[in-house]
Amino acid sequence: MSTPFIPVNEPLLDGNEKKYLIECIDTGWISSEGPFIKKFEELFAERVNRKHAIAVSNGSVALDAAIIALGIKAGDEVIMPSFTIISCAAAIVRVGAIPVVIDSDPITWNMNVNLIEEKITTRTKAIMVVHIYGLPVDMDPLMEIARKYNLKIIEDAAEMHGQAYKGRPCGSFGDISTFSFYPNKHITTGEGGIIVTDDKQIADHCRSLRNLCFNPEKRFVHEELGFNFRMTNLQAALGLAQLERLDSFVTRKRQMGRYYTEKLSSLKGIKLPLQQTAFAENIYWVYGIVLQEDVPFDAEQAMKKLAALNIGSRPFFWPMHEQPVFRKMGLFNGASCPVAERLARRGFYIPSGLALNSSQMDIVAAGVWKILNN
Length: 374
What we know:
Strand order of the largest sheet: 1-9-8-5-4-2-3
Largest sheet: 7 strands, mixed
Mean pLDDT: 97
Oligomer: single chain
Distance between the termini: 21 Å
Structural class: alpha/beta
Strand content: 5-15%
Number of strands: 13
Number of helices: 12
Helix content: 25-40%
């Protein structure tokens, strides 16, 4: 009898989620006008030590709004990691700006802060920080560079719910910061995202962009083109229930990370996630594995082998400078990010959702051992 399929992620929805959703249905507040929106925004802002929070329909559009609200325009350059999701570069490209990529640190997998300064030009307007997979970027030297060159910081903390850098919440560093609430995040609203900032003018602009730039005095007279980026009250109700349990979710994720590390640390041929740095302990948004060069197959083949054992997995991000869509646009010509390239080809992550139990984790770990020893 084969083992039931173990998905790469399954959210945990056994708190107040059902209670709050029923309240939405019973009261009829299901659109973006409902009371859970404001409550979720206020409590999330408080959690990450921010003055303003603007809930939106997903993490990708949060980045779009952030770029526009900061005034990034055609011809401006934004420094960002190559090793990240395409949403980051797409938000820059959509306004006609130019993404300038930085390679990864081979240990943390985050952007290599030591490479930033050499990429700054007179056209550089901002640095997009993306915290990757569970550990934050080393922010102190990055903030120093931003101050030195008078650059804005866009902080993508999509994977960092509950994480901190030297005790300060991730999401509190950027001129504007964003989160995602996709089902594989520590907090989910199904689809959803949020923008946080301390700047009231930026916050007001994001709220306007989120809601088609309706004019508060003459609703259907528009001075700017906006979007429908609104989050629904149903989503916010789900998010509030999840936010109530964030600390326990982070504790659970760290336990899972340690469990996997204990099971896999003696297995040759792989590199496991760093458990901690001098400034943060990993919160294991996902549990990533990187195959060493002496393993005779790549991540794609490894995932196929795991799938044959009914174990889900997912590849690491593909570098921005190797994306066909951007190459067709003539972007990133000659760019080389060897660490990001290796991570993309040799890296993948195994099941690590909050609903995963220890028996399933044992099966996953045994599966990883099996594919590396056959």
